[in-house]
């Protein structure tokens, strides 16, 4: 585990919860056996070795709320490089958010996230992001949804006959690094996409609940999961296509699977146009529009200065009091997630946000690729 570097990180903070004091501090290796109990009950996932790896190798650090030395609430931080408005900025990815059942709804997770955001702010980290279990829960912490994704389920027989499957070649799991340059080109195309290190590739490809096969194209790649397919549906976990031709070649590859093993295929797109341009199929594809990541500004100054948005810099109000002070009656300042939504053109500015910010960073589509 990389130990956080600021002085605040080594200091424990005390938070009052009802009649008890909780100590908010970094989770150390000696806390692990208790921490894993909290994670297990929250996520129902009991593989201790994997939790250990997650907490002390995959994550940069974990913060806990301790009562009598028991870590009742936890969250971890994974630092990413994020692409935003043509710039590379730092993103504190939040994961493993959990509270032990007896101590829920007492503000412990909120206190842990406040501490993490404080640390990120001190380190001048521009943004933070997470995949939520509940959107309202994280909205209270200043995060907003920043992209939509299209999950397509298509009967394989109905997929248009286009492209050339032989443009893809199978890649052994151990040779995943050959996919990395494509992933980099792919993530550079999108706002708020996160770069993936070699360590994260290994983590993604060794999930126990999935059995991956990899295919590489000169302008794309696909990751398929063959484990426990639901309703004879091939799950394309990740499909990078940098050209429309690579998308067509991928459809041809999927189509070749539609015999013994699978009837349907499922994949995710950032934008439906390449599919719609192929015309109507029968039966039609089922499209499920789903929320992507939630994001928020952390260090306001670093965010505006390091993303080419100095001219659009505005004051932010923040329920966590990190990027600005909390909202007061009649407040016209936007929230830390709203600023990103407006700058990327994800939502129209409401009356109080300056027009100049609207679409100021909308040169690329917003799409969150990384799952964590
Ligand atoms: C979700 C979870 C982390 C919340 O932890 P917690 O310590 O109870 O949360 P807090 O008490 O700090 O709650 C903060 C705020 O969210 C609200 N809240 C708590 N649980 C909530 C829930 N399940 N849904 C929506 N809001 C919730 C609280 O009422 C509180 O609001 P307030 O500030 O207006 O009073 C905890 O229930 C848990 O571990 N669940 C299982 C694992 C999980 O889903 N983790 C999230 C992965 S993204």
List keywords for this structure.
single chain; 372 residues; alpha+beta; Aminopeptidase; 2 domains; 8-stranded mixed β-sheet; 7-stranded mixed β-sheet; 10 helices; globular; disordered N terminus; binds coenzyme A
Task: Explain the overall architecture.
The protein has about 375 residues and is of the alpha+beta class. It has two domains: about 1-145 and about 290-370, Aminopeptidase; about 150-290, Gcn5-related N-acetyltransferase (GNAT) (Aminopeptidase). Helices cover about 25% and strands about 25% of the residues. The protein has ten helices and 15 strands. The chain has helices at about 30-45, 50-60, 110-120, 135-140, 180-190, 200-205, 245-255, 275, 300-305, 335-345, and strands at about 15, 20-25, 60-65, 70-85, 85-100, 125-130, 145, 150-155, 170, 210-215, 220-225, 235-240, 265-270, 285-290, 295. An eight-stranded mixed beta sheet has the order 1-2-3-4-5-6-15-7, sandwiched between helices. Mean pLDDT is about 95; it is low at about 1-10. The chain binds coenzyme A (COA). The site of coenzyme A has 19 residues, from α1, β5, α3 and α4.
């Amino acid at each position: 585990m990389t130990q956080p570097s600021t002085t605040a990180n080594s200091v424990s903070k005390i938070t009052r919860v009802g009649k008890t004091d909780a100590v908010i501090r970094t989770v150390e290796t000696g806390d692990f056996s208790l921490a894993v109990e909290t994670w297990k009950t929250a996520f129902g996932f009991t593989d201790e070795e994997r939790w250990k790896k997650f907490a002390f190798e995959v994550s940069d650090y974990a913060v806990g709320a301790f009562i009598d030395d028991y870590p009742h609430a936890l969250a971890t931080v994974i630092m990413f490089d994020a692409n935003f408005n043509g710039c590379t900025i730092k993103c504190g990815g939040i994961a493993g958010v959990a509270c032990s059942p007896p101590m829920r709804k007492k503000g412990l997770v909120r206190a842990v996230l406040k501490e993490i955001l404080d640390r990120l702010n001190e380190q001048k980290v521009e943004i933070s992001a997470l995949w939520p279990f509940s959107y309202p829960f994280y909205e209270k912490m200043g995060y907003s949804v920043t992209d939509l994704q299209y999950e397509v389920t298509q009967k394989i027989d109905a997929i248009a006959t286009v492209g050339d499957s032989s443009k893809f070649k199978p890649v052994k799991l151990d040779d995943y690094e050959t996919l990395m340059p494509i992933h980099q080109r792919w993530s550079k195309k999108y706002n708020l996409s996160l770069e993936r290190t070699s360590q994260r590739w290994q983590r993604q490809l060794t999930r126990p609940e999935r059995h991956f096969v990899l295919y590489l194209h000169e302008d794309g790649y696909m990751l398929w999961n063959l484990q426990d397919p639901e309703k004879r549906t091939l799950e394309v976990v990740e499909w990078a296509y940098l050209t429309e031709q690579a998308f067509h070649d991928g459809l041809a590859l999927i189509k070749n699977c539609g015999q013994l093993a699978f009837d349907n295929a499922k994949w995710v797109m950032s934008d439906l146009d390449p599919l719609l341009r192929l015309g109507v199929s029968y039966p039609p594809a089922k499209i499920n529009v789903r929320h992507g990541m939630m994001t928020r500004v952390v260090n306001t100054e670093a965010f505006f200065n390091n993303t080419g948005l100095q001219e659009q810099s505005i004051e932010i109000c923040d329920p966590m009091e990190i990027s600005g002070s909390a909202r007061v009656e009649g407040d016209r300042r936007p929230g830390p997630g709203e600023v990103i939504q407006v700058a990327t053109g994800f939502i129209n500015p409401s009356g109080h946000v300056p027009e100049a910010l609207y679409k100021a960073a909308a040169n690329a589509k917003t799409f969150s690729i990384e799952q964590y």
